[in-house]
Amino acid sequence: MKATQHPATGVQVTPADLLRMAALYLRRHGWHQGTYYNALFPAGFLTPPACAAGAIGIASAGHKVEHFSQLDPDTLADYLAAMAAFVDYLDNFAPVFHIDEDGYLLDEHTSPYSWNDDPTRTAEQVITALESAADEWDRLHTQEGGNR
Which of 17, 120, 135, 139 has its CA 20 to 30 Å from the CA of residue 4? Predict the structure, then answer.
């Protein structure tokens, strides 16, 4: 871009965009379980392997986010919308139910954290779920290339 050009304004980043960016981040930098980011990398390392939520945080903020409370209000709204779209997808297509010893359902929604951290989970499953959640969000919220 030349110095005389002005960047486009008014471009709306959707939850689907953030989910796809998170999937791309995991493809490029690696997937992790247990914490947002792999602690084996130095604190200043900008692109450590991440869990699904950590990758969504990076996609939203453009940098590592240790906790969503660190985000400014607009970025937080984008992060929460992307996480909600991911949870909706998991609820519909990959539900994880936690039942207590009395047979009662403990969680109404699938936790993206416990889903990501399932010992049988693979990186490809997480990346595919992020991409599929983005496709599902688009299917529900866009019509002929535009927002509904």
Answer: 17
Asked whether the beta carbons of 37 and 50 are under 8 A apart, the reply is yes
Q: Which residues of 104-129 are buried (b: 16+ CB within 10 A; e: fewer)?
A: eeeeeebebeebbeeeebeeeebbeb
Which stretches within 94-122 are classed as H helix? 112-117
Which 8-state DSSP code applies to residue 14?
Answer: P
142 pLDDT tier (thresholds 50, 70, 90): confident
Bridge pairing between strands 142-143 and 146-147: antiparallel
CA angle 17, 21, 27 (to 5 degrees): 150
Give pLDDT, residue 1.
46
pTM of the model: 0.82
Angle between the N-to-C axes of helices 123-141 and 15-29, in degrees from 0 to 180, rounded to the nearest 10: 160
